[in-house]
Amino acid sequence: MKNMTPVILGLLMLTSFFAVIDFTELEEPMVIEDTSGRAGADPSVIAITTPKETSCDDRGCRNTLMVGEETTFAAYIQNSGDANIDELSYTVTVYLTDFNKNVGMVAKDASGNDLQWENLDAMCDDGTVCDFDSTTDPLLPGNYLAGGKYTLQRAGSDITWTPIQGEYLVEVKVSSPTDADAANNAELVYVVVEDWYDIQVDLAWDTTDQTSKTDWTNPSGDFTLTVIANGSDTFDPRDVQVRLALAGDYSSATASDGTDLTQNSGITVLTAGTPATVNIYENETDPNATQDATRNVLSYLTSWTFTGSVAINTAQNESTLKVEAEVIGYTMYGPFEDCVETSDATEGNEDVTTWNNLCEVSLNNDDNPRTDADEIIGTTSTYHDIRIARMGVYQGYNSDGTGLPSTFVQSDENTDLNVGASLIYADVEHRGSNGMDAYNWDLSYSVSLDGTVMFTGTTNECVEGTDVPYTHQPLGGFGQLVGSACVMISLEPGEYEFEFTLTMADKPSPEGEPIEWIGAFDARMSNNVESMTVDVVNNLPLITSFELVNDGDLVVGQEEFLQLSVTAFDVDDPSGEGLSFYYSYQGGEMLGCGERNQTEGGTICSTPILGEYIGNLAINIVVNDSHGGQVAQTMMLNIWNDAVAQATTDAGITISYPLQYFALSDFTIATFADKDIASYDKVVLEGFSGTYAAVAAMDYAPSTTFPANDILSQSLSVTVDKALEATSLWYIDGSGKWILFADASEDVDATTEAFVYSIPANSPVVPSGTLVLMGGELAQASIPDASVSGFNAEALKGGAIGVTWGITGTLLSSDNIVVTICDGQEDCAEPFTQTVADEDRSYSYSGTNTVHGTVYHVSVAVCNEEGCSTAGKGTVTADKQVDGGVAATALTVQEDGENWIISWDVTGDTSDVAMWHVCYNRGESFTAAEMPASCPDSVMGADANTMTIAQPTAAGTFEYYFTAVPMDALGNMDAADSMNSITYNRAADNSNDGDGTNTIGDDGDDASSSVPTWTWGLIGGVVIVAFIAGAFILSRGDGEGGEGKDWDY
User: Fold this and answer.
1) How are beta strands 132-133 and 937-940 bridged, if at all?
2) Quick one: 317 and 265 in the same domain?
3) What residues make up the domain containing 369?
4) Nearest CA to 313 among 253, 259, 265?
5) Among residues 160, 194, 228, which one ends one of the domains?
6) Rounded distance, CA 339 to CA 415, Å?
7) Given Cys at both, which of 195, 387, 593, 817 links 233, Cβ 3.0 to 4.6 Å?
8) Has residue 3 been placed in a domain?
9) Which residues of 202-229 are buried (b: 16+ CB within 10 A; e: fewer)?
10) Number of C-alpha atoms within 13 angstroms, CB side, residue 974?
């Protein structure tokens, strides 16, 4: 039984626990967010391109480096990730390796330094330090460093390596702090560095450093052949065979030992080297089998020379010879594959034995074929040659060919030519061996257009069209070695072919020439002909300006002519003399501005403004060039109509209405007739005092009206006899409103006068109405008699301004009461004004329009069109908040029976405080912005710091949060965060009205628990029963294992 006690107690506790659990909470789902995957920047080495990877097979290795051959390192480095790379470094390391490409130790240079270069400043956010500035050019995802293949650098210079013989692995490795995958950061290439061997051949004349000998004062020329064995390591080839060959115009050739070199068609095979007895075979296992013989050994870096002499053939005017030397083979001694011997397998002995013997092998090339051959040339002094050195076309001339060119297109350029005057030009040059030979010459030309020959002729000078004219003279002698010839033609659009043929003319020289001009055999005719095929296009003229010369508006019939000016440029005719100009409008050609060229004044059009131009005038200028090219441009102009409408009444009163308007229709006065003036007696005129009587009246109506935007200018005048004694002209519109047109007249002559109305700008035509001439002198009206009294302006809550006033005197219908408010100064640029009803005697200006602490100037006045009477004025400072930085601190809340006592400390300047309010909220704390709007509990006095508030009567347990804030005399109240709280607990609602219901908790808006009330009673009963049962059981014991003890707890 005693063993069941803990179980029973545990069950009872679980029952209590589960009773208070809100099981709805257990039903809330839990969202587990799990993301995975790798993302970010990922620098990777895609490939190493320099040095190239060495590949080897049975035939040898490709892409090897030569010992001492300096190399750089280049690679493709890519951002393989999905984020920018902002920091990057890389390392170049050269490792030793073997044929199996196993990575060994870091290789070293000749000074024992590791062949490893590290660039920690490849990319960073400082372009003055790093090679790449990531703030302006980060390595974007998918992009390559430097846009592709990149030569690796350190400290601004390329990383270089001068290798020695061996096998290497070159590693390029990149690194970045934001690297998302280090597995692709490095690449290796296998590089083999081999020794190199070279047999160098050098052939030279003994009397000149040049490969070509031209001075044959002595018909024979001595030469020297030098052969050297060079390489990265010791290289001693044997029996180096050099083929010496003669070609061209030679008469004899001998070696220094007297050997005739002209035998065998001028081909002699020489053996370079010094004779020596050397081994030619060695057996790996049998020293006695060694063989030797005499061989010519070319020792490493030791020169072997051969000298000879060759005579040029002087039997002809022009002779050329050539001596060539070329290595055709040599022998090497060593453990080559050809020396290997193997034994055959026999029955009972399957082993094969290999002997790596030493022997001689024949080779016919080395590691640098460029130095295996050389040649020298000899020419006689009588080599005759002239050539066309340059051919092309000069352009940019005026249409008549005058002026200087601006462009030159050479024959080998793939460029179009322009139409117009062009200079077909050629430079000719003396190319003979003797510059004192004076060659006479001519240049024939042919010009074809689209396959048809247009011009042919001969020329030998160029005296016009260039900045340095050339007059014909021989090439050479005492003349220049270079001359020029040209022909000026005008090109049209199409495909042209220009051809020049240069001839060496056998013509006598002019009398008195110091050297006879000669015409000799031209040794090289292939350089005497030049041709040029090119497309010729017409560049359209360019209208650079098309302007109206006139100032002001354009009115039909005006005295000043319409004047237009145009400028145009044609790249094919810079002077513009070949351009013509044509002016037209919608109706055809502009009067006096037909097609004319520049000389005829075509760039200016001066024409009268005709009636058909009225309205939107579109003027079109067309510019034509002499090759059919045409461009046009349009100018839009507004042309105004001009009319003066007039009419006269039977009484002799005349109206005149000048009008400039934007329409083709006529403008006249349709009605202007005398009218009875009886109804215009004792008239009160606005703005004037007293009454007035009319002396004449006329019905007026125009033939048509135009809106203001269609009118350029207008005026109206009425001319009357002075005897009528009119003093002013009035207009009565269709609504009966009187408008003053003129309050004075102008003398026309001794008997008549005119009343002129200057119609305001942006006004339409004066519509139909009545024109009235009034008599009597006009007396000006005055400002209102009524004025403001008892003015008062004061600040209101929230920054509002209240204004009150009274009125002294009588308000007329034309009077208005105007309220004016200015910010900061009395006469501000943009005041607030409000016209109020005549019966109003107060006005409130909203606080939304004011700024706290700003002084506002307020005035109220009675005004009419003439002005305002004396205004009531005052200043008000807007008040929206409690000043002085006053606040409550250290607020405490104490419970006193059914009341709370709230106390606080006051800080700051209290001069603006009228009272203090306590604000509170149940259930949640609040910020100043969340403070309850209604805080009825208050205490008067700037220094008040305590208040008693009655507690609520609702049942339940709640937390109440409190704050205290100041209020000024206008009702502006501060806001503050809640500063303290108190727990409220009431078992029953004291406010029960005895209606037979029980009050538990409050109205349910904020229950302290979601557990039903009856549950708590059940829990209490279960707990009591559990304790009684437990006490009974423990006091009994079991009398067995408990040894008869009484349990005491």
Assistant:
1) unpaired
2) yes
3) 197-345+356-379
4) 253
5) 194
6) 65
7) 195
8) yes
9) ebbbeeeeeeebeebeeeebebebbbbb
10) 23
